[in-house]
Amino acid sequence: MASSCGHMTIPELRNELEKFGAKKSGRKWELVERLEAYRRNAHCARTDVSGPEFMMMTPDPQLYKDLHSDKTFQGCTASEISTFLSKFNKTTDKKGRDMYTDGFIQYMKVTFHDSHWFVRSSVKASMIKSVKYDVDVMIGQDRSVVESQCECAAGMGPDAHCKHVCAVLFACADFMKLGTYKTELTCTQKLQTFHRAKPHKGSPLKATQHC
């Protein structure tokens, strides 16, 4: 389906986003996607556009470590995810589960700071694979979800529960249970076929035919 906002200039896009109290930073295609998402969900958009945009207080980025190298991370349980989603009248999030299962998470990093675990992740958008969203989640020592935020249009904190946040939570639950989690496959992990010899489909010749 053609974009309904693609013809707009960047100043026009930013002016429209300001009406929703949305972020106005990013490249044009990001602004277009964000505005279209807000227009689709206009019934649940924030009415107070004058207040400051919420941003989680996160630790210094240099304190984060790749999750695979920090086995002390306690993760969160499936029951805690259900408890978190129940606050928004949701029992589960199939889209978030599918995004996690299908490898939309690019990486996850964690750090323990001020008695809380902080998770930072990058999750690919479902419709435009070149777009990715940064996700932040704060988890308490009781494994409860304390705060969350995402860069997508529906990811305003402190209680973001979009599919990208849910995908990260499912990854945390898997890590707690299995000690690992699924990420996007790298080029070296994917099956490479470009350098393989083509299969021979002809019939073998008898030795006498070469004479």
UniProtKB/TrEMBL annotation:
Domain of life: Eukaryota
Domain SAP stretches: 5-39
Domain SWIM-type: 135-173
Keywords: Metal-binding, Zinc, Zinc-finger
One matching Pfam family: SAP
Protein name as catalogued: Uncharacterized protein LOC111116308
GO MF annotations, alphabetized: zinc ion binding
PROSITE patterns the UniProt entry points to: SAP (PS50800), ZF_SWIM (PS50966)
InterPro entries per the UniProt record, alphabetical: SAP_dom, SAP_dom_sf, Znf_SWIM
Originating organism: Crassostrea virginica (Eastern oyster)
